[in-house]
Amino acid sequence: MTIKKTLTVAGSDSSGGAGLQADLKTFEEYGTFGFSAITTIVTMDPDNNWAHGVTPIDAGLVREQLKTILSGGPVDAMKTGMLGSVDIIRATREAIDQYQLKNVVIDPVMVCKGEDELIQPENAEAIRDLLLPVATVTTPNLFEAGQLSGFGKLETVEDMKRAAEKINQLGVKYVVIKGGKALESNKAIDLLYDGKDFTIYEVEKVDTDYNHGAGCTFAAAITAGLAKGMNVPEAVQKAKDFVTAAIQNGFALNKFIGPVWHGAYNQAEKRIK
């Protein structure tokens, strides 16, 4: 038996619902062996209206983590999440080039859920210039797609299509824009663009606030699908099914957030009593 290897280069979400924690849980549910290189530590302060704290790791330490992970050979697929600094973005690009990594999924995390300000504006430019040209897939949400395309606020499927075309021109092969519940629709809509054709993925919108980590989980599921040999449209469809089940089974964690349940698709909670 050959177990496929997956890598996330991402921030650590201390609440456990998003970031590399979400990625590793998703990788496991897909039956892949997950590695993680920690780029940032994200905390929330319950004594200050749950304000987010974002602390980047030194880029040299990120390089050492990647060297440790990739010393045994390339992984079958990788993804990025919150990268923390331009130096960390450079370190990630260096590893992709040095180890000739394939099936690269760039999730261009620019804000924390519940926040609407860019974490570091200079990072968006570095992601666009250094990572998208070597990406197989990028998975921006509406805000991130607006930033990468330069079109600002996206409100309709037509806006998403226009932004996807622009982002594709940056060098990435496939663009998946996560519309999710943000569009004014009774559907949760995601859009795939392959440089020629558009594919719409939609399900009934789940009426819940327990969706912390949904975006990370969706991108991680695409990554694991690619590692398992799926093509991009297949990987996106499976990821849509996986994250929909996760959102449907989200739960309250504290007074501020409720995470998705990564074991829902495989009904992991029923395996061991």
From TrEMBL:
Entry similarity comment: Belongs to the ThiD family.
Chemical reaction(s) catalysed: pyridoxal + ATP = pyridoxal 5'-phosphate + ADP + H(+)
This protein's UniProt keywords: ATP-binding, Kinase, Magnesium, Metal-binding, Nucleotide-binding, Transferase
GO biological processes: thiamine biosynthetic process
Domain of life, source organism: Bacteria
Top-level class of the enzyme under EC nomenclature: transferase
Signal peptide: none
Every Pyridoxamine kinase/Phosphomethylpyrimidine kinase domain range: 13-261
Any Gene Ontology CC annotation: cytosol
EC number(s) from the headed UniProt entry: 2.7.1.35
Protein name: pyridoxal kinase
Entry GO MF terms: ATP binding; hydroxymethylpyrimidine kinase activity; metal ion binding; phosphomethylpyrimidine kinase activity; pyridoxal kinase activity
CDD domains in the cross-refs: HMPP_kinase (cd01169)
Keyword match Nucleotide-binding: yes
